[in-house]
Design a protein that fits this description.
single chain; about 280 residues; alpha/beta; Rossmann fold; Hypothetical Protein, Haloacid Dehalogenase-like Hydrolase, Chain: A, domain 2; eight-stranded mixed β-sheet; six-stranded mixed β-sheet; about 30% helix; globular
C-alpha cells in the first residue's frame, strides 16, 4: 500500500483511560484513517504482554510499537518485526548510576518477555514498586541491591518521588544510553526514569517506520499525554497533546480534549483535513 501519511498515537492517558477502556468514537476514527490511506500506529511504553490486555488483534491499526520502541509488531499478524535491548555491560552501567543515587529500580527482561523483571530495592520499597509487585505477581524476583546483573535487558526503570527527579542529571551522565522521563501510570505522580539503548524512543520508531514505508515525515501527526511522548511529538509534523497532559507540554503543543473525551478523534480528523487541504488545522 502507498500511504498518504502516518498517524502515531500514545495509549495510556491518551487513547485509553486508567481502566484500559477506549471510546468507540476514538476507535472508529482509526477506520477513517484507513479509508484515507493513512498508516495507523499505536506507540506505548507498555510491554507486549501488557499492551495485549488493551489492544487485541481486531483493533484497527497497522503497527503496534511497545516498550517505547524496543518492540515493533506488524498488526494484526502480531509479527515481531523489530526488537532492541541493553547489553549486560550497559545494564550494569545504568544500574550503577541509579545505585549511586540510592534509587530503587527494576530491570526488565528482554523483549518479548519484558513483563518479567528483577527488583533492586535500596531500603524500603518505593510504594509505586509495591504497586507493580501486585500487578505482576509471579513475574518478578527481588535481588540484592548491589549484586552484579548478569544478563541483557530491555530497559531499566528507576522510581522516585517528583521532588527528586533525577532524569536530567542521569541523562548527562549516561550519554551512551537513552534516558527518558515518564509519569507513573500506576499512581499518576511518581517519576519513572526509564533507561533504554541510545537508538530507542517513540520518535525514532516513528521515523524508522516512515522511512521503511516511504512516508514523508512532513505528512505525519502524533498525539500523546506525557513526558515520554516528547521525542515523538518533536519528530512528527503535527503534534498534539490531550488536555490532561502536563501544563508545560500544553504550552508547547497543540491541545485537544482530554483522554476519554474524544481528543484522539479530533486530532485524527484534523490531520485528515490537513492532508486533504494542506491547511494547518490548529491556530498559529
Amino acid at each position: 500500500m502507498i500511504y498518504k501519511g502516518a498517524f502515531f498515537c500514545d495509549l495510556d492517558g491518551t487513547l485509553a483511560k486508567n481502566n484500559g477502556s477506549i471510546s468507540l468514537e476514538d476507535k472508529a476514527v482509526f477506520e477513517k484513517l484507513k479509508d484515507n490511506n493513512i498508516l495507523r500506529v499505536i506507540v506505548t511504553g507498555r510491554s507486549p504482554y501488557s499492551a495485549d490486555k488493551v489492544i487485541d488483534a481486531s483493533f484497527p491499526i497497522d503497527y503496534l510499537v511497545c516498550s517505547t520502541g524496543c518492540a515493533v509488531f506488524k498488526w494484526p499478524e502480531k509479527d515481531l518485526v523489530e526488537k532492541h535491548g541493553l547489553t549486560e555491560k550497559e545494564v550494569n552501567v545504568a544500574a550503577d548510576a541509579l545505585r549511586k543515587r540510592k534509587i530503587d529500580f527494576m530491570v526488565l527482561d528482554e523483549v518479548p518477555q519484558n513483563h518479567k523483571f528483577s527488583a533492586h530495592i535500596y531500603n524500603n520499597p518505593h510504594p509505586d514498586i509495591l504497586r507493580r509487585f501486585k500487578i505482576y505477581e509471579g513475574f518478578y524476583v527481588e535481588k540484592d541491591y548491589y549484586s552484579e546483573i548478569k544478563n541483557p535487558a530491555c530497559q531499566l526503570i528507576g522510581v522516585t518521588v517528583p521532588e527528586k527527579d533525577p532524569v536530567e542529571e542521569l541523562a548527562e551522565e549516561l550519554k551512551s544510553l537513552k534516558v527518558l522521563k515518564a509519569t507513573s501510570p500506576l499512581d499518576g505522580c511518581s517519576i519513572w526514569t526509564e533507561i533504554y539503548p541510545k537508538h530507542v524512543s517513540k520518535g525514532i520508531a516513528a521515523k524508522k517506520l516512515c522511512e521503511k514505508l516511504n512516508i514523508d515525515i512532513e505528512k505525519t501527526a502524533g498525539v500523546g499525554n506525557d513526558y515520554n511522548d516528547i521525542d515523538l511529538l518533536e519528530t512528527v509534523e503535527i503534534s498534539c497533546v490531550v488536555s490532561n497532559a502536563p501544563d508545560i507540554m500544553k504550552q508547547k503543543y497543540n491541545t485537544v480534549p482530554k483522554c476519554g473525551e474524544l481528543g484522539v478523534k479530533e486530532a485524527a480528523e484534523k490531520f485528515i483535513s490537513f492532508l486533504q487541504t494542506s491547511s494547518f488545522p490548529f491556530p498559529a
